């Protein structure tokens, strides 16, 4: 059966006029999707634009790269801390209030970053940005899922897939243009008009208010104190692993072990507490939700690991600028756009399982040419491979997100969205750390074997060997993908796990 929307469900006036038995997308729902995409793509672009400017910022503030790297690390840690809080905050205060707060925090952080006078001030203001940005993405998913209804989930997840997938492709190009032709400050100022537009439109289109039951929900303080620092410690340890090229260094092991201990303690707490936990692990009892979570975690490892490798391959091996690298990666965005247009309707029509499996196979096929590439590359071959790879990426993310929300009751969407975002962020951090460590060892072994002077083919071979790891991770993701539901329309019959009893 279809679970009715609670009073605070984020359904715009126009969207509510389309019944669950009607598969059409109303004008109101389209407008809401547009506003959500506006806020979400701003966050995704900002992350990748800043990475392009790291070298420029290091020189401008006369600090080491390891110091200025905290501009990115602090942002990621702030996001990791705030994501677990998002579901509860949305339940307690309403989606529009939390969305507005998130945009205002991101806007304020962007303005302050633009006027930063030192590396320390820039890092501090990026943390503020991260607190806002960390809430925007899980909120976007939950709001659209609640507004869509079960028969329109695929198409609405296509909408949220646009910023999630296009951000890493377009960010380096836009960031490079702004840094080269204006100033590093404009990678932050460019957020201001987008934020203001998103604030104005969302205030008109999103309903306000919360249900009486939601207003009585207390915060799981112990769960938050365990989960948020646990996620932050893991993200920090993994970022250090990527920098050191090793998982055994003390500055890597200590936060990793600490993070694992905190997350294990949270798991015990969440399963035993008599109040509603900050993230309800009972959601994983739903086969649809657990299968989707597993696919998204492993797939995020392969996705962000490969993005990391592709950027390094073009910039460090072939000497391309950040702007040119972004343009060379643009074919991936073309394939992605086509897949997003097709994957949503197909997921609604024939179900998520085989769409996701085909997407994973396409991603594998599009990555293999990079495993075999030599020093002198065929741009046409690799460009075509990126189109195929992009199509695969779009065909995976949409059905997985749709299946995840189809597997839980609508009142649990907010916390389910926070959980999914945690899986994606930790998966991406693991993926980048793993390929960074593997790549460093491959390059070291290649350099030693070449007597300290490897040629271009040998360095390209080290990258190729590392790309095989991302292929292997994508193959692993096929296993949980086969457990996704055959059709979304049958999923409503699956009883969603109820949250823990309130004390």
TrEMBL record:
Transmembrane segments: 29-47, 67-85, 97-117, 123-147, 159-178, 184-201, 222-240, 252-271, 291-314, 326-347, 354-375, 387-408, 420-439, 459-484
Keywords from the named record: Cell membrane, Membrane, Transmembrane, Transmembrane helix, Transport
Molecular function via GO: transmembrane transporter activity
Membrane topology: Multi-pass membrane protein
InterPro entries: EmrB-like, MFS, MFS_dom, MFS_trans_sf
Chief localization: membrane
Superkingdom assignment: Bacteria
GO cellular component: plasma membrane
Domain Major facilitator superfamily (MFS) profile: 32-489
Region (Disordered): 1-22
Subcellular localization(s) per the UniProt record: Cell membrane
PANTHER family: MAJOR FACILITATOR SUPERFAMILY (PTHR23501), TRANSPORT PROTEIN HSRA-RELATED (PTHR23501:SF1)
UniProt name for this protein: MFS transporter
Source organism (scientific name): Dactylosporangium siamense
Organism lineage: Bacteria, Bacillati, Actinomycetota, Actinomycetes, Micromonosporales
